[in-house]
Structure formats: structure tokens, C-alpha cells
User: Fold these one by one.
Assistant:
Number 1:
Amino acid sequence: MNTETMTSCQDFLTQYDKTNGLPAWQSPTVQALQTGFVAALTDQALLLATGEDAATFLHNQLTNDVEHLKDDQAKLACYCSPKGRMIASFLYWKTSEGIVLQLHESIKPMIHKRLQMFILRAKAKLQDISTDQLVLGLGGAAAPSVLSRWFPDLPREAYAKTETSFGTLIRVSDADHIARYQWSTSNAIAQEVWPLLEKELVMVDASAWRLTNIQAGIPQIIDKTQEKFVPQMVNFELIGGVNFKKGCYPGQEIVARSQYLGKLKRRMALARIAYDGDQAIMPGTEVFTSEEEAQPCGMIVNAEWASEGVCLCLVEIKVADQEAGSIHLGSSTGSILTFLPLPYPVIDVTA
């Protein structure tokens, strides 16, 4: 899509804010997230891999199976450095055009350039389609009936996918017992369906979708957390993002060694923070035990406001420290983290 069309789409989103008298998108509420909401995921970028070698090329770069990806499914995957550290996390799926990689906008230029560099002689091309598509996140009790107008056969399981002339619909992990769907479509179709979505669902900011990702225990790597974690440190193998039976990829030996040699000492947890700071808690912020002032015991992976003065976060932390005592944000005397149960079991698996 050309620049003029993209500008038109951005103007449309901006005009919605002005029409409703809002300085920004509405903040999420518990009721909105439960009853039905939609968010324009403007922080998400899309890369499209095409060509007869596209699947093989990506299969050799990512932690998950791409060569056997089915048309009716989406998957999670990591892109790692040679040292096994995550430099990107992806949601990926097939379309009639090729394989789509979804990642955070802040790391798109670097990842696009890096993947492009390794294509070499492979018959594959990688292009940025972020300006051609708009990604919507929908959830809550009303979302399925609203979506059925454009997708008669809704995907019923997590990471199941369907396509119609209106785009690609993926059911992602539930959050706080609510069903969630991600809809990728053209800017033109997004503008066409917007009035109906606005009428029947609460329009919220992309931060609301990020909050539901935190509730679902699904981390996303951004620029501030690149090369901070081996996949297992943020539970990525537990949520289906690592295939230990596939062939080689960058960092595979270290990822495999972390899996099979002893019990994992660091994991990702869900926590609530009563926080009175003026700015949001940033990914990459370190956390400390009350007993150790100099050495951090973990790091915030993702964080979002859940209500006034309260943030939810995903935090990578030493397992022993999580079980031993109080954990604080930013310093040994900072705001205390209260740990909550994740929606999936955190166990060490070797298969």
C-alpha cells in the first residue's frame, strides 16, 4: 500500500479519537475486557516471507517448526542469537502469499535486516507488509458473535486459524477465562468494518491487548529486552514456542542444553505491583530481593496498567528467590511484587 493510503488509515484512527472526545484510546476496564472489546494493535509489525524456499529458510532460523506448518494453524517461535538469547519473539502463520511473521514494531528494522542478511542463495524474499495490514485484537463474551459476521467458522482452539476474504483470524490463548482473537486484514477492510465494531464492542488502546497477553502469560520481546533471555527463562517452551525435535537454528545447542542439563533455575512469573510512579513500568527494569541491594534477581519482561495504581507484569526471576522472600521493583526497597498464578503449569519438561 502506498504512503497516501497508509496516512489515510492513520488519519482515520486519529479522527476516531477526536470524534469521541478522547485524548487517547479508552483505558481498559475489567467490564470491557470481559464483555467485549477491540483494539488496533498499532505496536505490532508484519513481515512476509515468500518464495519456494521461504519455509525452509525460516525453519533453519527459528526455534519452532515452519516446514510442517498447517494452513489452519498459527505458532509461536523465537529468533535467537548464536548464544541462545532471544532477539525476537514471533507469532507466525501461512497465507496464500507466504508466511507471515508478527513481531513488535520496535525490533522490526533490526530483525528484518538480520533475516535478510541470511537469505543468501535461498529462493526467498522478505518484505515489510506492516503498512498494508492492520492487526486487530478482539476479546470478551461479545467478540465471537461479532466476528461471526465475517468468519462463519470461528477457530475454536488456541492458535487455530481461519481465513476468508476479510482476512486472517487466529484464536490466541484465553486471558482471565475470556476468549481472544487476532484479526489481520487490509486497511481498507478495517475501515469498512470499523463502524460495526465500534457499535458492538468497546474500543480500547493496544495496551489493553498487551494486558491480556500478560494475563495469558504470553511474553513479547521488544527492543529493551533483546538478548536478555534464553527461551526457557520466559517459559517459551511451555507455551509451544520451541520444538526440540527440529533441526538446527542459531543458538540451538545452548537452548537444548538449558532444557536437558539439570533443573531450570530461572523462570517467568506473573505478578501484580501496587505502583505510584508517574510513568509506566518499563520492560527491562530489574527486580531485587530485600536482602540483596547490589545484585538484581530478575527483570521485567512486559508490564501494563491493570487499574489506577496497579500494574500487572511478567517477570523473569530466579526460582529460588521467588519462593524465598519479598521481591522489589528497581531496588531492594522499591515497590513489592505480589506473585499470582499463571494460567499454565510451570514445570520442567524434557520432551
Number 2:
Amino acid sequence: MVVGHTVLASWARVIRRTLDACGCDSAQLLLDAGLSHAMLDDPNGRCPAQAMARLWRLAASATGDEAFGLKVARHVVPTSFHALWQAQSASLTLKDAFERVARHFHVVTDAWSLEFTPEGDEHIVRLLAPASGIAPEPEAIDAAAALVVYTARSLLGDRSVAPSRVELQRTPPLAMDTFARTFRCPVSFGAAQNLIVWPRALTEARLEGANPELARHSEALLTTYLAGIHKDNTVAQVRACLADLLPRGEPSQAQVAQQLNCSVRTLQRRLSDQQTSFTDLLDRTRHELALSHLADPACSISEVAYLLGFADTSNFTRAFRRWTGQSPTEHRRANGSPG
């Protein structure tokens, strides 16, 4: 893992609870990993990703359990990952929930990413290490994959729900039956990627707990938190500024640069260093916010256009069709909302 990457401290607390349940000396293992209790006691604290990787390795060794990551997933509570659980719980569909998790996954860790993509009749959740990084510990991937499945079951209110298949890069464990019982679908090992595959119809079914207002509020909390932990990350700062400025009209580079107390040229250079541009970030931010606002049936399409800083609804419609291949009205109908 690249030096400087961090993990939400509450993830370490979940591992500690699991170690305690297994009868292990969690205090000593945390100390050996280089993690202090002060780090873990801060609800918004971050741990070095390298220390967390050591903790995963030490925990797997201490328990001697190849399926330790699956056990960790069972000890996650709704407050383990900041406002992420509330955001996904209030989502319109499972697809909407997974998209939110993908957008804000760096709240949990910026050492790797979660990607959610449609492919034909399937929707695929991928757990990806950055090109410049080292693959996460197998136990961490196991825990994340199991958590994706547990989340789907919880949101759908059906413990029998299962993905179509799961593919993991890790070596095959001896305890194959534990993985089979957890995922309740075909599981393959030594795969090219870590992914969980879902039938599209399942991910697009409306969730009973859908609450667009709560989802937006939770996303705002997550965006603020991410901006705070990435103060040196210009991309995060620009996206936070754009979200704040868009309801007042399309922001200019000069406005955002002023908000960040730098010149336009400095802003352009910083974004270029992170392989992006102001125009690209403006487009991506609008796209993501559009999906969030359209999930609220109380928000008219003209209101969405206004909140995204478009001069009129027709400009918004053209942009949305470019992003998704659908008009805003078609998108709402496809997702079970009135146009």
C-alpha cells in the first residue's frame, strides 16, 4: 500500500471485537500492529493503511482461521462506517445503494476502491487496488465481499438473498464450506479480480426503506468528512466547493480557486497533477448529484436542473442523456419513480 493511505479507525474496532469474540488478546495484537487505543477511540479517526494490513495479518495468524474476514463482517454495526450505512439504507434501490458506497468508499479506506458497474443483465461490484498500490490483505477483501452481501440481505429484508456468483483473487481456502455458507452461491478462487455479481433485476427492485431526503443528508455528511480528511487533496476540495456553489449557477474556475485561496493557474496545475481537470470534475459532480436528486420524487426535474446550476431544463436534459443515454424522465420511470 502507498505510504499515506488511511483506513477509518472504526474498521480496526470491528476487528478488535472479532478478536475478542475469538478469545484472542486483541490489545497485544493492536500494539504489535502499531495501532493505539487513542486512534481507535476517535469516531472519526484514521489509521495508517500499512498498520491495518499488519493487523489483518496478525489477526489471521492468531486465530488460525482462513475465514476470519467473513467473521469480521458479522461484527460490523450501523455506525461502523460514519454515515455510509444511513446513506445506503435510505437508497431507492440496491443499485442506488451500491453506487453511493462506490462514490464514498474512501470514507472507509483510500488504499483501495469499490466499483459498481452494469454489464448486460448483471450488476457487478468490484473491489480494486489502485494501480500504484499493493493488493489488500485477503482477509480484508473477504470481509468487504461478505459485507456487500450482508448489506444486500439487510436492505432487501431477505436473509436468503444471494449474488449470482463471487470471484476472489485469494488462494483457495481449506474451509470452502464456510465461504459457500456465507455467500450461498458459486465462489471461485484464484480469479483475475475480486467481484460480486448480482442479477440486474434484484439490484433495481425498490427498497422499502427508501428515503431520498435522508440519503441526501447522509451524502452531505460523507462529502464534508472526505473533504476534511483530504485537505491536501485538491480533487476532494473542488468537488466539495462545486456541490456548495452549483445551486447558485454554474461555478467558474475563478470562483472555486477563490474559495480554495489559490490562483486559477495553481488550481489547474494541482488538478493536472491528479490527472483531471476542472471541466471533468464539474461534469462528474453534476452527474452524481443528478442521480441523487432524481431519486427524490418530491424534487421536480426543473428543480434538479436548478440545483445543478443549469440555465434551463433542456440543457440539463441534454447533459443527462450524454451521461446515461436516458432523459431524466426516462431514468425515473426505469427506476420506479414517476416522471
